[in-house]
């Protein structure tokens, strides 16, 4: 996957003013591909369902759908999907961290409250 930076701004001057786009343009395409593919199947499923909900979903076997939109609305949809993916990735990391910490706490139980420290 290679990002098309023309999506992010309608004018080249706007792209030059955006530090994040400049940073992304400096990254090696393989790095961006690896990051994009790092989303878990669960995150991909949630994003797919979110986008289908935004666009509308009819059974493909019964309907031959074509969706028409303008550049700005498509860019907003892409931005929404990206933010959803970022948010879900952070929540997945938090869930995994909490699970790890929970396992660690079970290995080292808290000392008994009746136990007194020696001087």
Whole-angstrom Rg: 22 Å
The parts where pLDDT drops under 50 for at least 5 residues are none
Distance between the termini: 63 Å
The tally of strands reads: 0
Which percent range fits the helix content?
55-70%
The proportion of residues in beta strands is under 5%
For the biggest sheet, the summary is: none
Determine the number of helices (DSSP H or I, runs of at least 4 residues): 5
Structural class category: mainly alpha
The dominant shape is flat
What does this protein structure show overall?
The chain is mainly α and 119 residues long. Helix content is 63%, strand content 0%. The protein has five helices and no strands. The protein has helices at residues 12-17, 19-26, 29-37, 41-55, 71-107. It is flat and about 65 Å long.
In short:
This protein is mainly alpha-helical and 119 residues long. It is 63% helix and 0% strand.
Question: Tags for this entry?
Answer:
119 residues, mainly alpha
Q: How would you summarize the topology of this molecule?
A:
Layout: H1 12-17, H2 19-26, H3 29-37, H4 41-55, H5 71-107
Helix pairs in contact: 4-5
């Amino acid at each position: 996957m290679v990002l098309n930076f023309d999506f992010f701004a309608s004018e080249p001057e706007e792209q030059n003013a955006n530090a994040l786009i400049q940073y992304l343009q400096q990254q090696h395409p393989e790095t961006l591909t690896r990051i994009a593919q790092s989303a878990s199947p669960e995150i991909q499923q949630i994003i797919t369902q979110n986008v289908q909900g935004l666009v509308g979903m009819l059974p493909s076997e019964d309907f031959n759908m074509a969706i028409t939109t303008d550049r700005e609305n498509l860019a907003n949809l892409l931005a929404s999907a990206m933010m959803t993916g970022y948010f879900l990735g952070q929540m997945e990391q938090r869930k995994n961290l909490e699970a790890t910490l929970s396992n660690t706490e079970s290995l080292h139980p808290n000392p008994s409250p009746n136990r007194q420290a020696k001087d």
